[in-house]
Amino acid sequence: MSSAAKVLAALRAGAPLDEAWAHVDALVEGRAWREVETLFEALDAWTSPDWVAQAASRRLACVVALADDAEGARVLVRALAGRSEGCWGRAVELAEVLAQGQRVDVLSALLPERDQHVELVARWMHGLVARGCDLSLEASCAVFQDELGERAHVLAGAPLAPSPFERAYRFPRAVKDAVMSASVAPLVHTGDAGALPPVRSCEGVFEPGALFRAVRHWNEATASVVTFTEPVGGAPGPRAFSALPFEPLSGLSLRLQAVPAEAAAARLFSAAAWGGAYGRGDGSAEARVSTAATLGALLGLEGPHDWARLADEAAAARWWLFLGTPWFADVAWDLGLACLRTDHETMVLLASTDTD
Q1: Where are the alpha helices (H) located in 111-225, listed in sequence order?
Q2: Cα-based distances in Å from 209 to 74, 222, 294, 340
């Protein structure tokens, strides 16, 4: 009996899923791609119970995506062709696993077949860029990127080379059943030295837009733009920040850390890519765009962005992460970010949480 037949027999018999998964793993480890394709078709025709086919298809797709094999990736793209999210799992998730498990040359080999599943291949390509791959000199990738522009795709404006502010992006551990959330480095208290100038004005931001793009899937977000009477200098500490008229900063327990632009971008990227406690994220490909949009809004730049200018402005600004006050639950799905723009008199404060 073939491994594919063993998978189906185990599922029909109601055997423990671990038994079926062992046959799935053996099928892929043996690079039996014709059998894999047959199994995809059989699972597509499976009628009852639906959740069994969905679980098996998801497992099979993730294992194939991690196999680092051009023919396996080709089988996966063919299996997904013409299908919506359905039982195969979201294109976002599978593109994430492909970007984690496959080499750039595998992507290049499949680009001629991209029309079979444009969304999957586009997110796979930009997932590789988010992980530090420079694809700007890959002619086939450049052609595909131009096509995305013609389609007005969400990834059309993103460059094929990593931007300087993308250097610290953190990535999850890919597993066979799903993609786990990336961990976030703990916030370190930086002491309490320095003051802030008097506040001239403080205006809340209430309209949804680019400023909230990176945290759009989170439960709650708030922001304010603070203008000071003179340029901010020195190293203002938690006491100075907690006096600002912004509720998420209020409290003696405020923890504050000055960070470089790439650390601020990495925190926004994690929120956008991996989601929070309740909502799924957009995956690393679209999170590149979401992070750039929020960074641009924090810096006061109008979109669509020139990514080179965005990187220069981000590097010239000052950034702080903050947490710890009663507004936050003080868990992984909290974000507090302050950006002092390059005029040194305007500070934008953003806080978000995906907890109750």
Answers
A1: 118-130, 139-150
A2: 38, 12, 9, 20
Confirm whether pTM is higher than 0.85. Answer: yes
How many CA atoms lie within 13 Å of 109's alpha carbon, on the beta-carbon side? 14
Helices (H), ranges, 131-260: 139-150, 238-242
Q: For 139-158, what is each residue's pLDDT tens digit?
A: 999 999 999 999 999 999 99
Collapsing DSSP states into helix, strand and coil, what is residue 199?
A: strand
Cα–Cα distance, 45 to 275 (Å, whole number): 32
pLDDT in tens, 315-337: 999 999 999 999 998 777 899 99
The sign of the dihedral angle between the CA atoms of 341, 342, 344, 346 is: negative
Tokens in use for 292?
A: 């750039």
Count Cβ neighbours within 10 Å for each residue of 197-218 and write b for 16 or more, e otherwise.
Answer: beeeeeeebeeeebbbbbbbbb
